[in-house]
C-alpha cells in the first residue's frame, strides 16, 4: 500500500493503539495545518511546544509525528542525543534513509568529514607548538562569537560554546587551523573539518528538498530543545529564513519542543512565523479521560491519582502505569510521591532497584549494575520499561521530576546507604577512568572526551558520598582542567553544583555556583582560579600552580599587569619554577620587551634545560632583536636535540636569510614544511627568501601556497602585496594589502604600504586614510611597533597633507615625527620638502645639503624595509640643490640591473614632488628635472614589463 495513504480502519487502529488523550485543540490545529497547501499563506511551517518538565511535550510531539505519517509524510525525530549541527544532520539523513529517501551526496560528504575529522583529532593529540600563544585572528573571533567553527574539535565546548570566553575560543580556533592545516593538505578538507556546518549544510538542504518533493510534507521534530537549542538555533534559523544554505522546500515543517521560550536574540525577527504551543498540566477532565483510557475508573483511585499528580501528565502516566484497581491501594500511608510512583510494584527487589538506579545522572547496563544491589543486577530490561525512564543517545535517564523526588527520599531515609551507594558508583567511575587512561599522562587524558565523562561521574558521586572529604579533589580537578583543557571547565563546575544540589550539601552547591558565576564574569577562567585560591586544603605548591595558570590566562586576555603580578608572586614563592619564568618571558615577548623576555627564558632554560620551548623562545627574541648570529646558535641547539621541531627549522632558516645564506635558508624552510605539511608561516618565509634573491615569481608561488593552506593568513597576503609593489603591479599591491587589512592583520605596515601604492597611483586621499589606519594600529596594544616606525608613518602622512596644501597640519605631523626619531631618513626628507613648499628651495637648502652630504659619505640608511629609500633621497637632494651632475650619476646607478621597480618609482615620485615646488617652470634646471623623470619612467616601463602577468 502507498505509504502516503492509510485506510480509515488503519487510522482508527493507530489512534486506539496510541491511546493519546487530551490536547484536543493542539491536535486539531496541527491536523488542519497538514491538510493545507504549503503555498497557502496560512500554512504553518514552524511550531514550538514549550512548558515545564512533565507536561507532555514529548508525547504531543510524537503524536504530531504520527499524524504527519498518517497523511504520507516523511518524518524525523531528533532529541538531545545530538551534540552538534553535523550530528543533527547525520541523524536526520539516517532516519530518512531508513524510510527509503537517503541523502546520498550528503552521506558521502559526511563520511569524508568523519574521516578527515579523525585525522584532525590525531593531529590535535600531539603537543602544542612551542612558539607560545599568538593573538587570535579577527576571523577566528567572528567564528568564536558565533560559536560554530569546528566546535566538536575543541574538546568540552559542545552546548556551552555560547558561554565560553570568545577570545579563548578564538585562540583555540587559531590553534586548530594551524594544527589541522598542517595535517590535511587539501584546502577543501581543512574547510570541511574547521567549518563543517558551512560545507555540509548546502548539500543537506538541497537533498532534503529533493526528498520533500516526493511527499506531501517532510516533518522534522526537535525534542528536548532546551538542551539542543544553543547548538541548533542559529543553524535552523538560517535554514528556515535565509538563503545562506540555499532554498528550502516549502513543504518542510519543523516542530521544536522544549521547556523554554525561544531565544529572542536568535528568533526575534521571525516570531510572527512561529506557531506558539504553550503546554501546562492536564485539566481535570483531560486527566480523567486519560485514566479512563487506561481502564482506571474506580472513583477513589482516580481521585487519589489526581491528588498526587497535580495533573502533571508524566505523574499521571506514572501512577496509572501499574493499573491500580482498588481504592485501598491508594490509601498507602506513605506520604512521599516516590512511594506512590512505585506503590503498585510489589517486588521489593525491583522497588529498591528503581530507587538505587536514580542515583546516576545517566544509565547504561554497566552503571546500573554498579548502582543496584546484586539481587537486582539482571533487572535492567525491566527498568527500561518504566514510564519515567527514557532513552537518550544510547543511555537512559529518569525524568527529572521523578529522579529529584527519589534522590530526596533516599538521602533522608538512610544517609549511610546514600553515601555507600554513591561511593560505590564513584569507585566504579574511577576504575573505568584509569582503564580509559591506559597509562597516559593527565594532560593527554583531559583531551579524551570519554575520560572526561568518567571523571565527571566520579566527581559527582564522590561529592554526593562525602561532600567535605571530596571537595578538595573536585576543586583540584577544576584547576587541572583550566591548565590543560580550558574549554571543558564549565562541565566540571556544573557537576560540582549539581552534586551539591542533589546531595543537599550547601558548601558544595555554593562552590559550584561561585565557579560558574566566575566563568561568566569579566575575568573568565582567571576569575575561576581566583576563587580556587580560597579553596580548602591548598598547600604552597598548589597555590603556586594556580597563580602560574592564572598568569597565563591574564596574558591571554592581555591583562598584562595582572599577568606579571601572578608570575612574580609565583616566582617569589618558588624561584625554581621554570614554567613561571617561561610564562613571564612570553608576556614580555608579546609586549616587545625582548631583553627582559630573553632574561626570563634564560632562567627557565637554566632550571630545565631539557625543554625545547625556552630554547626556542630565547632564539625567537634574539631573532626579533636582529641578533641573527646568536639566534642561529640557539636554533642549532634546538634542532640538534629535537630534529623534528619544525618551528625551530623555520626560524633558523629566517636567520640564515638575514645573514645572506639564501640556499641554506631555502633548505631549512623546506625541511620545516616537510615536517609539517601545510605550514603556512614557513611557506610564506620561503616566499620572502625567494624575494630577497630577486626571484619574485617563485616568491609569489610560495605566498599562494601559504594562502591556500590558510586563507585567513593576513601576513601572506601582505607579502604578496609587497612583491606586487616591488615589481610595479600597483593594482595588485592595493588589492593584496587590502586583503591583509580586511583579514585583520596586526601589522601596521600593511596599510602603510597600501598608502604608498595609492600615492604612486595618484590617490592621495586614500593614502592619507591608510596612514591614519597604520598610526592607529601602531599605537594599539600588541600591534604596537617601535617608535621609529611611528615616526615614518607620521612623516609619510605629513607628505599627504603637504600635497593637499594643508601646511599647518603637515607641520604638526613633521614635528611629532621629529620628537620621536629626529634622525630618521624619511622624517628629515619630509621636513626638507615641507620647508621647500612653505618657504622655498633656498630656505630649505641647508636641510637638502645635509641629506646630500650624508649620501656622498654613505651615511644615509638603505631603508630597505621603509617607505622611501636612500637612493631616492640622494637624487632628490641633488636636484633640489641644482647638482645636476651628481643627480645624473645617482640616477645612472639606479638604472642598473636589479633595481626594483619600486625604487625607481619612489625616485620619480620624489622628482615629481620637487617639480611641483618649482616656482618657475622656465627656471634653469627645469629641463634637467624633466629629463631625469623621463629616463626613470622609461626604465620603470621596462622593469614592469618583465614582471607583467
TrEMBL record:
Question: What protein name does the entry list?
Answer: TPR repeat-containing protein YrrB
| Alphabetic keyword roster | Repeat, TPR repeat
Q: Which InterPro entries does the UniProt record give?
A: P-loop_NTPase (IPR027417), TPR-like_helical_dom_sf (IPR011990), TPR_rpt (IPR019734), Ycf3 (IPR050498)
UniProt lists the gene as: yrrB
Fetch the SUPFAM superfamilies from UniProt: TPR-like
Supply the source organism for this entry.
Answer: Streptomyces rimosus subsp. rimosus
Q: Where are the TPR repeats?
A: 578-611, 680-713
Amino acid at each position: 500500500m502507498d505509504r502516503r495513504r492509510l485506510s480509515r480502519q488503519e487510522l482508527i487502529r493507530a489512534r486506539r493503539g496510541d491511546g493519546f488523550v487530551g490536547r484536543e485543540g493542539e491536535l486539531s490545529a496541527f491536523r488542519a495545518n497538514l491538510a493545507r497547501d504549503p503555498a497557502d499563506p496560512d500554512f504553518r511551517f514552524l511550531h514550538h511546544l514549550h512548558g515545564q518538565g512533565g507536561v507532555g511535550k514529548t508525547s504531543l510531539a510524537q503524536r504530531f509525528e504520527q499524524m504527519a505519517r498518517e497523511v504520507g509524510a516523511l518524518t524525523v525525530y531528533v532529541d538531545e542525543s545530538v551534540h552538534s549541527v553535523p550530528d543533527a544532520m547525520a541523524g536526520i539523513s539516517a532516519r530518512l534513509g531508513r524510510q527509503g529517501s537517503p541523502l546520498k551526496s550528503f552521506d558521502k560528504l559526511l563520511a569524508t568529514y568523519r574521516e578527515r575529522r579523525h585525522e584532525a583529532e590525531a593531529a590535535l593529540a600531539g603537543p602544542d607548538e612551542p612558539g607560545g600563544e599568538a593573538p587570535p585572528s579577527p576571523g577566528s573571533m567572528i567564528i568564536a562569537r558565533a560559536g560554530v567553527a569546528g566546535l566538536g574539535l575543541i574538546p568540552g565546548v559542545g552546548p556551552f560554546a555560547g558561554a565560553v570566553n570568545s577570545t579563548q575560543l578564538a585562540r583555540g580556533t587559531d590553534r586548530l587551523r594551524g594544527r589541522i592545516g598542517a595535517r590535511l593538505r587539501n584546502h577543501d578538507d581543512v574547510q570541511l573539518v574547521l567549518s563543517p556546518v558551512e560545507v555540509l549544510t548546502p548539500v543537506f538542504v538541497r537533498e532534503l528538498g529533493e526528498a520533500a518533493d516526493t511527499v506531501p510534507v517532510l516533518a522534522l521534530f526537535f525534542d528536548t530543545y532546551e538542551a539542543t537549542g544553543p547548538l541548533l538555533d542559529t543553524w535552523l534559523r538560517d535554514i528556515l529564513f535565509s538563503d545562506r544554505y540555499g532554498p528550502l522546500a516549502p513543504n518542510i515543517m519543523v516542530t521544536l519542543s522544549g521547556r523554554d521560550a525561544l531565544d529572542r536574540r536568535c528568533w526575534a525577527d521571525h516570531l510572527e512565523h512561529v506557531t506558539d504551543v504553550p503546554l501546562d498540566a492536564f485539566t481535570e477532565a483531560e486527566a480523567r479521560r486519560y485514566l479512563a483510557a487506561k481502564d482506571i475508573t474506580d472513583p477513589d483511585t482516580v481521585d487519589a491519582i489526581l491528588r498526587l499528580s497535580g495533573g502533571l501528565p508524566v505523574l499521571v502516566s506514572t501512577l496509572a502505569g501499574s493499573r491500580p484497581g482498588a481504592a485501598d491501594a491508594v490509601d498507602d500511608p506513605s506520604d512521599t510521591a516516590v512511594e506512590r510512583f512505585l506503590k503498585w510494584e510489589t517486588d521489593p527487589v525491583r522497588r529498591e532497584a528503581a530507587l538505587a538506579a536514580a542515583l546516576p545522572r545517566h544509565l547504561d547496563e554497566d552503571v546500573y549494575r554498579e548502582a543496584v544491589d546484586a539481587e537486582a543486577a539482571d533487572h535492567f530490561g525491566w527498568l527500561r520499561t518504566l514510564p519515567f525512564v527514557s532513552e537518550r543517545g544510547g543511555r537512559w535517564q529518569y525524568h527529572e521530576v521523578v529522579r529529584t523526588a527519589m534522590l530526596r527520599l533516599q538521602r533522608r531515609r538512610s544517609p549511610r546507604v546514600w553515601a555507600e551507594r554513591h561511593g560505590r558508583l564513584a569507585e566504579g567511575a574511577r576504575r573505568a577512568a584509569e582503564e580509559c587512561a591506559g597509562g597516559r599522562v593527565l594532560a593527554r587524558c583531559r583531551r579524551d572526551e570519554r575520560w572526561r565523562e568518567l571523571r565527571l561521574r566520579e566527581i559527582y558521586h564522590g561529592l554526593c558520598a562525602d561532600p567535605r572529604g571530596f571537595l578538595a579533589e573536585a576543586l583540584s580537578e577544576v584547576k587541572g582542567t583550566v591548565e590543560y583543557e580550558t574549554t571543558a571547565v564549565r562541565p566540571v563546575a556544573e557537576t560540582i553544583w549539581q552534586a551539591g544540589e542533589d546531595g543537599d550539601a550547601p558548601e558544595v552547591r555554593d562552590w559550584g555556583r561561585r565557579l560558574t558565576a566566575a566563568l561568566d564574569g569579566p575575568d573568565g577562567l582567571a576569575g575561576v582560579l581566583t576563587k580556587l585560591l580560597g579553596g580548602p586544603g591548598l598547600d604552597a605548591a598548589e597555590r603556586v600552580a594556580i597563580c602560574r595558570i592564572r598568569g597565563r590566562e591574564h596574558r591571554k586576555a592581555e591583562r598584562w599587569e595582572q599577568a606579571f603580578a601572578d608570575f612574580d608572586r609565583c616566582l617569589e614563592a618558588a624561584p625554581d619554577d621554570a614554567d613561571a619564568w617561561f610564562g613571564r618571558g612570553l608576556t614580555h615577548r608579546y609586549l616587545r620587551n625582548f631583553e627582559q623576555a630573553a632574561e626570563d627564558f634564560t632562567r627557565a632554560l637554566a632550571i630545565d634545560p631539557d625543554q625545547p620551548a625556552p630554547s626556542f623562545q630565547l632564539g625567537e627574541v634574539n631573532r626579533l632583536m636582529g641578533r641573527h648570529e646568536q639566534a642561529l646558535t640557539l636554533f642549532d641547539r634546538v634542532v640538534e636535540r629535537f630534529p623534528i621541531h619544525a618551528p625551530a627549522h623555520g626560524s633558523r632558516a629566517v636567520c640564515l636569510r638575514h645573514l645572506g645564506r639564501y640556499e641554506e635558508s631555502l633548505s631549512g624552510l623546506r625541511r620545516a614544511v616537510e615536517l609539517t605539511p601545510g605550514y603556512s608561516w614557513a611557506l610564506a618565509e620561503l616566499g620572502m627568501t625567494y624575494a630577497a634573491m630577486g626571484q619574485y615569481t617563485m616568491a609569489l608561488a610560495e605566498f599562494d601556497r601559504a594562502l591556500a593552506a590558510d586563507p585567513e593568513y593576513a601576513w601572506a597576503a601582505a607579502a604578496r602585496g609587497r612583491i606586487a609593489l616591488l615589481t610595479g603591479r600597483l593594482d595588485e599591491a592595493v588589492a593584496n594589502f587590502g586583503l591583509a587589512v580586511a583579514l585583520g592583520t596586526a601589522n601596521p605596515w600593511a596599510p602603510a604600504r597600501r598608502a604608498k601604492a595609492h600615492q604612486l597611483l595618484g590617490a592621495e586621499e586614500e593614502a592619507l586614510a591608510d596612514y591614519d589606519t597604520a598610526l592607529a594600529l601602531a599605537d594599539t596594544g600588541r600591534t604596537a611597533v617601535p617608535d621609529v616606525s611611528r615616526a615614518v608613518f607620521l612623516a609619510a602622512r605629513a607628505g599627504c597633507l603637504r600635497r593637499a596644501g594643508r601646511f599647518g597640519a603637515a607641520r604638526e605631523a613633521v614635528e611629532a615625527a621629529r620628537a620621536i626619531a629626529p634622525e630618521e631618513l624619511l622624517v628629515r626628507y619630509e621636513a626638507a620638502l615641507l620647508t621647500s613648499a612653505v618657504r622655498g628651495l633656498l630656505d630649505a637648502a641647508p636641510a637638502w645639503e645635509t641629506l646630500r652630504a650624508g649620501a656622498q659619505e654613505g651615511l644615509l640608511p638603505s631603508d630597505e624595509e621603509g617607505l622611501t629609500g636612500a637612493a631616492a633621497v640622494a637624487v632628490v637632494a641633488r636636484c633640489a640643490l641644482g647638482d645636476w651632475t651628481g643627480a645624473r650619476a645617482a640616477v645612472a646607478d639606479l638604472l642598473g640591473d636589479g633595481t626594483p621597480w619600486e625604487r625607481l618609482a619612489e625616485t620619480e615620485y620624489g622628482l615629481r614632488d620637487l617639480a611641483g615646488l618649482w616656482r618657475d617652470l622656465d627656471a634653469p634646471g627645469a629641463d634637467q628635472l624633466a629629463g631625469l623623470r623621463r629616463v626613470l619612467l622609461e626604465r620603470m616601463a621596462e622593469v614592469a614589463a618583465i614582471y607583467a602577468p
